[in-house]
Design a protein that fits this description.
single chain; alpha/beta; Rossmann fold; 7-stranded parallel sheet; 10 helices; binds nicotinamide-adenine-dinucleotide
């Protein structure tokens, strides 16, 4: 897909990867609509970039419908919809059900709801593109947070299913699976910071993949190396991950179990932000 002149929607546009994608798409000549749950910062960043902003909480299907309808009413169509908003919360099975539900809604169901309301329109038109942000955690794992690892696996599985099912009917799908990227999301994950790439580097990768209409977008060669190791010998891969987890916990400055036993607050390794507590 050539991005110039296309109508593009990006969720999670107020920060990090979403903001970088908005800025890059604008530079490439797209007509971008930025969207975020955070109305204040989202509107400010959109104004700085010179794009229209629509507030939407992607954990609510009604908000996604409102966003899509708004763009069809104002811009006339959607060529590329980037389901990018995501959160990283929780730790192990002790993570509260309401936090499992929240991360499931933000990281997975938002992609389902966007597809539910966009795919019929895109199929009718015979074209359309969905760029869904999952994570390398969807191919490998996430050492700090089971809810993050699980939901990113699900996001990747859903993107694969869409590509297989509708690929011959004009729908293009790409799934973004970065390892560490320098954004606020990895503030509590020093192991990811060690090899983190910039959002500009990521935006280059995304642009190349969109032009090539390539399904899987990665940022680090280690992602596919690790995925190959996982496929060829799961037990060896799990051993390697156990070592890496020890390193990650040491870098975090605390052993998770010791921390949890001492404080009863295992979830703090991936803190639930105030806005997500409700
Ligand atoms: N940073 C990384 O290392 C990394 C690696 C792999 C995948 N990802 C994924 O990339 C995506 C973007 O992450 P980021 O690093 O830019 O994080 P970020 O925290 O910098 O930005 C996330 C944005 O999403 C918004 N958001 C959160 N919940 C929302 C909701 N319910 N509705 C609408 N907007 C919401 C936030 O307000 C924020 O502006 C996420 O899906 C994340 O899981 C990030």
């Amino acid at each position: 897909m050539q991005i110039e002149g296309k109508v593009v929607v990006v969720t999670g546009s107020a920060s990090g990867i979403g903001l970088a994608l908005v800025q890059r798409f604008v530079r490439e000549g797209a007509k971008v609509v930025a969207s975020d749950m955070n109305a204040e910062v989202g509107a400010q960043k959109a104004a700085e970039t010179g794009v229209r902003f629509v507030q939407a909480n992607v954990a609510q299907e009604a908000d996604i419908v409102r966003l899509i309808d708004d763009v069809y009413a104002q811009e006339g169509q959607i060529d590329l919809f980037c389901s990018n908003a995501g959160i990283a919360i929780g730790a192990g099975p002790e993570t509260l059900d309401k936090h499992w539900q929240l991360i499931q809604d933000v990281n997975v169901m938002s992609h389902v709801w966007a597809a539910r309301h966009l795919v019929p329109r895109m199929l009718e038109r015979g074209e359309g593109y969905l760029l869904n942000t999952a994570s390398a955690a969807g191919l490998l794992t996430e050492l700090h947070s089971a809810p993050y690892a699980v939901t990113k696996h699900a996001a990747l599985a859903f993107a694969e299913w869409l590509a297989i099912t509708y690929g011959d009917r004009g729908l293009k799908v790409s799934c973004l699976c970065p390892e560490g990227v320098w954004t606020p999301m990895i503030a509590n994950a020093p192991i990811l910071q060690q090899t983190a790439v910039t959002t500009d580097f990521l935006a280059d990768k995304v642009m190349d993949a969109l032009v090539a209409e390539q399904f899987l977008i990665t940022t680090h060669p280690t992602t596919l190396t690790g995925f190959g190791q996982k496929a060829s010998n799961y037990d060896v891969w799990i051993s390697k991950m156990k070592h890496l987890r020890k390193k990650a916990m040491a870098l975090l400055g605390q052993d998770r179990e010791a921390f949890a036993a001492a404080t009863g607050a295992a979830e703090q390794a991936m803190p639930v932000r105030d806005a997500e507590k409700a």
